[in-house]
Specification:
Elements lengths: L7 E5 L3 H10 L6 E5 L2 H10 L4 E5 L7 H11 L4 E6 L4 H9 L4 E4 L4 H27 L15 H14 L5 E4 L6 H10 L8 E5 L5 H9 E2 L11 E2 L1 H4 L4 E5 L6 H13 L1 E2 L8 E2 L3 E6 L3 H7 L4 H7 L2 E4 L10 H16 L5 E2 L1 H9 L5 H15 L4 E2 L8 H11 L5 H30 L4 H8 L3 H10 L12
Parallel strand pairs: 1-2, 1-3, 3-4, 4-5, 6-13, 6-14, 7-10, 10-13, 15-16
Antiparallel strand pairs: 8-9, 11-12
């Protein structure tokens, strides 16, 4: 097969005008666009050099579209076929789809309709080939320098920014949605800096109140407050010569913001209850999932502190904006989990692949990681399918049933019953998995938390084929 980045398209139609017009419409979407006026000539071209995509008319005098489709599916399985015809009918559409056509486009079609179906076909083919390569490779290891998976322009930009700032002592602000990997980027900055052999402290500011955060960062002296029975060194003291990562800084109180601002200017701090400042050599990296500029406008975040930390901002895009990275990340986690579970799972089937790539991933990489872990637990074959993807597979089945149009009252009743059962099963499975996840996969604790007898809880686990992981690999 030719270069995957230089698409080759073949258009087959016994009307030369349609061939030429279609070629003009698609001219910017492929490096090569060839034309044939019948199936016989088309197959000769395909035998010389296979195409990424073939667009064929259904009715032609010398070898029609059905025969072309059949031969391509048999001999060139990586080539996608779109069938076009002026003899549009439900039966012919069903027949070509059953034979393995990617899509079906009735004449007359607009330029935008043709471009849309071709763009989707080429994108899905690229994803399918990526899946094939990753399945053969078994997932690629994360680069040692930064541990960031993917080759999208967005993630390459993040890696480039890490490389530029790591060797300096500049303050870094990492921002992006929850679950995008902000701490991973912070660790990459530290790992590629002169401080890499020193300590890295990660602090979640969202879990600590103002006074508690201040005492954790700066430490305190005996008698500084009730229960301060002895001196305690803070994180800043313990991390001297290293890096401190402050996550979710939007939760820091205005008072602590002021003290951090002073520290950034002077590189010294005062423990609670002390009377003198202590100099330290640490690098600060901040992160947030909130719009700090908006918080400044609302008066809930100090403007001077905002400008002081906005020295070198690194934006991490959500997963939905870098779809090409979904599969490499999924395979990375799959390889990790199956090794620890002792399973032989090679990859994803076409339906699972399609769902993974078209899902929006509101929880980003963290959600994808959890989903792959669940799939690895549920899967009892060598390939993950939709049934192994909670929230994804069931939704797909439900959507399919909703879109189906019944032709009789009996069929309507049957669809309603199936739809109801699938919705219940989806909720039930998610209920059990959620209880297990919240209780570290301890069945007894999960059953108690869910308000079920242990035997009933285990029966539901068996019903939905939910198995316990052999080992927690989150580290």
């Amino acid at each position: 097969m030719p270069n995957e980045d230089a698409f080759r398209i073949l258009i087959i139609d016994d009307e030369p005008l349609i061939c030429r017009n279609s070629a003009v419409i698609l001219s910017e979407m492929a490096q090569t666009i060839d034309m044939a006026l019948n199936g016989v000539d088309a197959m000769k071209l395909i035998e010389k050099a296979p195409y990424h995509l073939v667009i064929t008319d259904l009715k032609m005098s010398r070898m029609g579209g059905m025969e072309v489709l059949s031969r391509i599916r048999q001999n060139y399985p990586d080539t996608l076929v779109i069938v076009i015809t002026g003899y549009a009918s439900v039966s012919s559409a069903v027949e070509v789809m059953k034979l393995g056509a990617y899509d079906y486009l009735p004449k007359p079609f607009t330029p935008d309709e043709l471009r849309a179906v071709v763009a989707k076909a080429l994108n899905d083919r690229k994803i399918k080939m990526q899946n094939k390569d990753l399945m053969i490779a078994g997932g690629r290891p994360a680069p040692a320098a930064h541990q960031l998976i993917g080759s999208s322009p967005q993630i390459k930009k993040v890696v480039s920014m890490i490389q530029k700032v790591a060797g300096t002592d500049a303050t870094v602000l990492i921002y992006g949605e929850s679950g995008t990997g902000k701490e991973l980027v912070a660790r990459a900055v530290h790992a590629n800096s002169a401080r890499k052999d020193k300590v890295f402290f990660a602090v979640d500011c969202g879990t600590l109140s103002g006074n508690l955060l201040e005492s954790e960062l700066f430490g305190y002296r005996k008698g500084a407050f009730t229960n301060a029975h002895k001196d305690k060194d803070g994180i800043f003291e313990l991390a001297n010569h290293g890096t401190v990562f402050l996550d979710e800084i939007s939760n820091i109180s205005m008072d602590v913001q002021g003290k951090l601002l002073r520290f950034l200017d002077t590189r010294e701090f005062m423990p609670l209850g002390d009377v003198k400042y202590h100099p330290v050599d640490i690098r600060l990296i901040f992160a947030t999932n909130k719009d700090l500029k908006e918080m400044v406008a609302q008066g809930s975040f100090r403007q001077d502190f905002y400008y002081r930390i906005f020295v070198y901002p690194i934006y991490i895009p959500p997963l939905r904006e870098r779809k090409g990275d979904i599969l490499p990340i999924a395979y990375h986690f799959l390889k990790l989990y199956v090794q620890h579970m002792g399973k032989a799972i090679n990859g994803f089937d076409d339906e699972a692949l399609n769902r993974l790539n078209h899902y929006e991933w509101p929880g980003n990489i963290r959600q994808l990681r959890n989903m792959i872990e669940r799939a690895a637990i549920l899967c009892d074959k060598d390939t993950i399918s939709l049934k192994d993807l909670p929230h994804l597979g069931e939704i797909n089945d439900i959507e399919r049933l909703i879109e189906y149009v019944p032709e009789s009252n009996e069929e309507l009743k049957k669809i309603k019953k199936e739809l109801r059962q699938k919705a219940i099963d989806a909720i039930e499975k998610n209920f059990i998995i959620h209880a297990l996840e919240k209780n570290a996969w301890n069945v007894t604790k999960a059953a108690q938390a869910a308000g079920l007898q242990r035997t009933n809880f285990q029966s539901l686990m068996k019903k939905h084929r939910i198995k316990l992981p052999a080992k927690d690999v989150r580290g």
